[in-house]
Design a protein that fits this description.
Manganese and iron superoxide dismutase; single chain; SOD_C_sf; globular; alpha+beta; superoxide dismutase activity; 3-stranded antiparallel sheet; minor pseudopilin epsh fold
Amino acid sequence: MYRLVSGNSRVVKKTLSPLLSANRYASYNLPSIPHLDSLRYSKEDFHGVYTNKAINELWFKRGQQLTDGLNQLLEENGINDPPADLNALITLTFNKPELYGVYSYASLLHNLQFTLESLKPLDESTSSNKIRKCHPNDLLRTPNAYEKINNEPLSPELRNWIDESFGSIEEFKTLFLNSAKAIKGDGLTWLVARAVRRDTDSSPNQEYDELAVMNTYNAGIVDDALRSGQITKLKEEKKYKLAALKKKHEERQKIKEENGEIDSENIEDNLILGTVEEAEALNSFSKRKLLPILAIDASSRNYLIDYGVFGKQQYLDNVWDAIDWNVVAQRLPSKFKATVQL
């Protein structure tokens, strides 16, 4: 439960966003992730994936740096009443170049929290996962195509979605981890539920009907509404440019008419018709919705401490075994089921 405090009024929201506290400028606090908080006090490892040193560096140190940086930028830009929902802050600042720093810090904090909430420590007594520095020879290791898949989702609904979208859990795991392995630099691999908006007589609605895998880089997040907003912004810019062009054209026409000249140029077509690419882009994003349900952070900082420069594959294998499928299933939306109209 998250709380925004301002004077005597209180607005309580249950979101992914951090706590907000009342200062001169309302500020975010580092979010609480219960299983990470317990590791901080017990000084135990995040069994199966991270040592205690790594989790302190990745979450408590870097997470606090991102939180402090975000608060500083909010104060520098005079934003004294930020939204309690971190996603709302991201959306509000995305298309404002002067607030790119706020957007970047908010997105990085959101992504870091989302990925770590997707994992759970393994049972030390039963886990075969080893956190170790990897050797160059590990890069030459041949994958076992017949190796049993560990840590499969138990939710029948989630498993059905995966089978329908990717063919099998084996094919999904291969695509998911290979997509993460292919990231160079900072980036995340996401499992998203994808929907196409179907407008009805009553109101538009989002109908999720398949899963997909996608990558984002640096401070990128999964939100097609942002890309749709970009397209709307570009359309507005084009509208103003064409209006200015039409005004200049009319002025030239008037001068030519006064001089008895005839100009057969017709600018109206340019003002009405757009390109095929514009039409496809508008349709792709204005009627599509992506909902993130799982993410792996493939950035090098996540594995260098424990696994070394050659340990990315081992890190990804260990992360797969630590995915908390109960959390993923809770994020899953209701699946759209098409009906046959007779």
